[in-house]
Specification:
The chain is 53% helix and 21% strand. With 136 residues, it is an alpha+beta fold. It is elongated, with a radius of gyration of 27 Å.
Amino acid sequence: MKRALVLCVVLIGCATPQERCIQRETRDMRVIDRLIAESEGNLKRGYALEEVTIYRHEWVLCDGRHRPEPPKEGQPAPSPRPPKLCFEAVPDTVTRPKAIDLRAEADKLASMRAKRAALARAAQPAIAQCKAQYPE
């Protein structure tokens, strides 16, 4: 089972030279696609989602900061001490709703769709070149 999982991960990471070439030439389009999907989701919900890092305090192991010093020559070794706990701030990322201007979001979405169309037109010759250079 473990080998099958590793094999699947390895195969997913593989791409033909043509696919790598096309991916390289359409990188900006994929970024715009993700942004368009995010903007469409914002408009559908009526608000945006933002990730915020908050800090909460909890008891954690002190990572050896309170280890005793090694014994000096001729002295007996100190007895082992239980691990120390420290009350520290631990980062936690949460998703929160955020109010947005829906008109501005719709304008931004229209602008990104126009930019995506322009990128697609500009990428066509490069994609054709990738297919010619690396036929499958």
